[in-house]
């Protein structure tokens, strides 16, 4: 209401003026129509049938056509049309299948004139002939179109489309006898009213129902159609076959389409659902609307230009129970808010970038594109068309080529062919795939497979590496095969050490990262990294020695018998620990009997009974010595997401299949399905059909496993009588011959069968290949020159 612009249009002796305005209706509108002189509009719906006057400042209700205490279903309208030749004549399509005409010149309150009840189902559309006063056409849900002469009480012609329901009928503006009809099966038919027995032309216009059509008011052969496939198509009907000349892609199903008066290239559309806006398109620029009216809050059900020679005023009704008059100058222009830059990747990995020439020319660092190196040396610049109402902006296009090596996908193809996803044990699959990735110079992927083997392999089935191999990359022990020795306090072996030694065994139990960080000491580190926190148990005043955090290897027997000396290695070997912990009194007795105990060790062993009890109670492991597989699942889940986000869905899907139930429950089904579909699409693009089928078979997603079960029907004709075979076997029902007999050996083919599509003869693959080495004619003797690809 605040849009106060006013326009006055001169139309011969009359003038149209007004502004953007609206009024509230009593009920939602299904259709609207305007009278010939553009001063009144009729609004029809299930519960409304009124005429409003169009004044400069507002809508004024003139007449309510729903009269009577109990209005019948004849007042429930699906469509309405005001005759453009006779100002007092209206026609409505009722939801009960009736076609009703109304005479506004009647003196009585009830203006109903004639009632036609020949249709069996809802009438979707009514249309008056543009020049004949008494000719009315209707299209119904029952699939029939009827032509009525209003001077008679029944239809004069019935047209059967031999199809589903009729959604729209429109008389041609230029051809007196021609009308077009659109159907729910996607077809459009052209009829001559003089020949009701058969249509003149039929063509498939849309994939799905065609909801509307409209003849161009000026160009004789142009027909616009709109359908559920979200497209508006313009057809040239002057040729022998209907030719699509323009196509506009919208964002929702198209319910109404109306050509804009006095503008050859413009048409208005509204949607049947989802989208509430009205769009005006320039069919030469189909990618963005020329103008948009955004006033309605619900689906727009009817649009009509106020006058057939006035392009500035548009009327619309909606399910939000409002009637609007839109002034074109108040429309929003999406092109003003559109992104002026464009970006697109080419088939060979090149990147094209288009932007305003003023932006690019202002970049001082931009190097000119060498003409000799440009892969696309020819660019066509569109000449300015002064008749277009778009802003003319010069843009520059730059093409950036990628290096040949960066866009090669050989690694993808080789990886897909060489990866093993099933058929061997988990460890063998990981080792094989790691080797494949390493040979293809993909070290990160190779390391990932190795780590997966370490994390999820069963330690019971693997041998422990030798003591001299700790820290070497080739024989890295499995993480789950690490077993902490029982932390018993064996006093005899401890007290056999020399007097000058001062060592304490560190009992430091801590879960989490400190465990993982301390299980792989290498020769490069002088000390094993310990935990960040303080130890929970301290024995005496001595400090803890981090070197003895865990015992990694058993020492050999000869080393145990020798006198203990300070080791030269960075990681000292530990003595054998007794399995049986002793009572505190034994500890005190052993300490008193041993003359070799050093002072520091004596301090450690002189414990109170309570302290000794604590020592004994923690001498056994407080948790399982093996990390369970679920411990690593969050890390693996993040790793798979990382690979997928980087574009390597091959790695994500391969790991998903190999790990199976170990990780599958950690990732939601929609994400898995998305990864599978992306990988399968890539495999099929590279024509890796066998690999694609294997991935589909190994998948556990129901939406994926059904992919190789669709479109698998094979229709076979008998090679003898050429008739279609039944599905009950390989014996023809007509000639009783076996259809799968080899033309070379004359035996039934069980398994792979190859045949010529020209003569239908074939046989065993090897037999046919050997035959064609010496002869190009069919081995069955039919004389056909068979070709096998």
TrEMBL record:
What pathway does this protein act in?
Protein modification; protein ubiquitination
Q: What is its EC number?
A: 2.3.2.27
Its domain of life? Eukaryota
Q: Which molecular-function annotations from GO does this UniProt entry contain?
A: ubiquitin protein ligase activity; zinc ion binding
Q: Where in the cell is it found?
A: Lysosome membrane
Q: Name one GO biological process term.
A: positive regulation of macroautophagy
Task: Write out the ranges of the repeats annotated as WD.
Answer: 116-158, 203-245
Could you list this entry's UniProt keywords, alphabetically sorted: Autophagy, Lysosome, Membrane, Metal-binding, Repeat, Transferase, Ubl conjugation pathway, WD repeat, Zinc, Zinc-finger
EC top class named in words? transferase
Provide an example Pfam family for this protein: WD40
Reaction(s) catalysed by this chain, per the record, are: S-ubiquitinyl-[E2 ubiquitin-conjugating enzyme]-L-cysteine + [acceptor protein]-L-lysine = [E2 ubiquitin-conjugating enzyme]-L-cysteine + N(6)-ubiquitinyl-[acceptor protein]-L-lysine
Question: GO cellular component terms?
Answer: cytosol; GATOR2 complex; lysosomal membrane
Under the heading InterPro entries, the entry gives: WD40/YVTN_repeat-like_dom_sf, WD40_repeat_CS, WD40_repeat_dom_sf, WD40_rpt, WDR24
Asked if ATP-binding is a keyword of the record, the answer is no
Key word ATP-binding present:
no
Alphabetized SMART domains for the sequence? WD40
Q: Which PANTHER family match?
A: GATOR COMPLEX PROTEIN WDR24
Q: Which family does it belong to?
A: Belongs to the WD repeat WDR24 family.
What job does this protein perform?
Catalytic component of the GATOR2 complex, a multiprotein complex that acts as an activator of the amino acid-sensing branch of the mTORC1 signaling pathway. The GATOR2 complex indirectly activates mTORC1 through the inhibition of the GATOR1 subcomplex. GATOR2 probably acts as an E3 ubiquitin-protein ligase toward GATOR1. In the presence of abundant amino acids, the GATOR2 complex mediates ubiquitination of the NPRL2 core component of the GATOR1 complex, leading to GATOR1 inactivation. In the absence of amino acids, GATOR2 is inhibited, activating the GATOR1 complex.
Instruction: Spell out the protein name for this chain.
Output: GATOR2 complex protein WDR24
What is the source species?
Answer: Oncorhynchus mykiss (Rainbow trout)
């Amino acid at each position: 209401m605040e849009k106060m612009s006013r326009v006055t249009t001169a139309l011969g002796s009359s003038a149209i003026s007004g502004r953007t305005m609206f009024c509230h209706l009593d009920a939602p509108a299904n259709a609207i129509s305007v009278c010939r002189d553009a001063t009144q509009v009729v609004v029809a719906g299930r519960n409304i049938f009124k005429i409003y006057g169009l004044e400069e400042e507002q809508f004024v209700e003139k007449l309510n056509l729903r009269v009577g205490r109990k209005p019948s279903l004849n007042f429930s309208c699906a469509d309405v049309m005001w005759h453009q030749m006779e100002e007092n004549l209206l026609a409505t399509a009722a939801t009960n299948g009736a076609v009703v005409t109304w005479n506004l010149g009647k003196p009585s309150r009830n203006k109903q004139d004639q009632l036609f009840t020949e249709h069996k189902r809802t009438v979707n559309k009514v249309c008056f002939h543009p020049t004949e006063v008494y000719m009315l056409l209707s299209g119904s849900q029952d699939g029939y179109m009827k032509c009525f002469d209003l001077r008679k009480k029944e239809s004069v012609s019935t047209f059967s489309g031999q199809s589903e329901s009729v959604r729209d009928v429109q008389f041609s503006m230029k051809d007196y006898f021609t009308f077009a009809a659109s159907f729910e099966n996607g077809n459009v038919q052209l009829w001559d009213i003089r020949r009701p027995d058969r249509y003149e032309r039929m063509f498939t216009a849309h994939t799905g129902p065609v909801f509307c059509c409209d003849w161009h008011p000026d160009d004789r052969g142009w027909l616009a159609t709109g359908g559920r496939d979200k497209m508006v198509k313009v057809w040239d009907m002057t040729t022998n076959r209907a030719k699509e000349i323009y196509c506009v892609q919208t964002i929702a199903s198209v319910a109404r389409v109306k050509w804009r008066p006095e503008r050859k290239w413009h048409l208005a559309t509204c949607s049947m659902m989802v989208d509430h806006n009205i769009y005006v398109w320039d069919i030469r620029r189909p990618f963005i609307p020329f103008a948009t009216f955004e006033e309605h809050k619900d689906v727009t059900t009817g649009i009509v230009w106020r006058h057939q020679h006035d392009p500035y005023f548009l009327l619309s009704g909606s399910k939000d129970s409002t009637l609007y008059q839109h002034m074109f100058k108040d429309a929003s222009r999406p092109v003003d808010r559109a992104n002026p830059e464009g970006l697109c990747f080419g088939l060979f990995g090149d990147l094209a970038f288009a932007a305003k020439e003023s932006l690019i020319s202002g970049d001082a660092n931009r190097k000119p594109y060498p003409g000799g190196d440009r892969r696309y040396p020819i660019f066509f610049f569109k000449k300015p068309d002064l008749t277009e109402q778009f802003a003319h902006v010069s843009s520059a296009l730059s093409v950036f080529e990628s290096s040949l090596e960066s866009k090669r996908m050989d690694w993808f193809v080789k990886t897909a062919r060489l990866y093993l996803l099933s058929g061997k044990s988990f460890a063998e699959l990981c080792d094989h795939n790691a080797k494949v990735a390493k040979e293809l110079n993909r070290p990160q992927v190779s390391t990932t497979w190795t780590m997966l083997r370490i994390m999820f392999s069963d330690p019971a089935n693997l041998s422990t590496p030798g003591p001299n191999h700790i820290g070497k990359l080739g024989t890295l022990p499995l993480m789950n095969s690490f077993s902490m020795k029982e932390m018993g306090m064996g006093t005899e072996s401890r007290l056999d050490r020399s007097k000058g030694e001062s060592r304490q065994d560190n009992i430091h139990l801590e879960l989490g990262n400190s465990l993982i960080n301390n299980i792989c000491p290498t020769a490069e580190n002088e000390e094993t990294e310990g935990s960040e926190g303080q130890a929970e148990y301290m024995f005496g005043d001595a400090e803890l020695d981090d070197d003895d955090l865990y015992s990694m290897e058993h020492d050999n027997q000869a080393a145990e018998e020798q006198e203990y000396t300070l080791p030269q290695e960075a990681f000292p070997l530990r003595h054998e620990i007794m399995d049986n912990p002793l009572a505190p009194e034994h500890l005190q007795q052993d300490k008193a009997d041993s003359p070799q105990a050093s002072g520091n060790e004596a301090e450690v062993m002189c414990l109170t009974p309570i302290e000794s009890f604590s020592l004994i109670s923690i001498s056994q492991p407080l948790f399982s010595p093996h990390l369970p597989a679920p411990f690593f699942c969050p890390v693996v889940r993040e790793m798979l997401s990382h690979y997928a986000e980087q574009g390597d869905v091959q790695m994500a899907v391969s790991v998903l299949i190999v790990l199976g139930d170990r990780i599958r429950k950690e990732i939601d089904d929609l994400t898995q399905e998305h990864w599978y579909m992306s990988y399968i699409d890539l495999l099929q693009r590279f024509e890796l059909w066998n690999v694609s089928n294997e991935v589909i078979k190994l998948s556990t997603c129901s939406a994926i496993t059904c992919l190789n079960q669709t479109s698998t029907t094979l229709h076979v004709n008998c090679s003898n009588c050429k008739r279609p075979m039944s599905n009950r076997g390989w014996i023809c029902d007509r000639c009783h011959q076996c259809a799968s007999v080899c033309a070379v050996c004359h035996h039934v083919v069980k398994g792979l069968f190859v045949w010529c599509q020209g003569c239908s003869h074939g046989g065993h693959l090897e037999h046919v290949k050997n035959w064609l080495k010496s002869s190009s004619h069919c081995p069955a003797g039919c004389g056909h020159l068979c070709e096998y690809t």
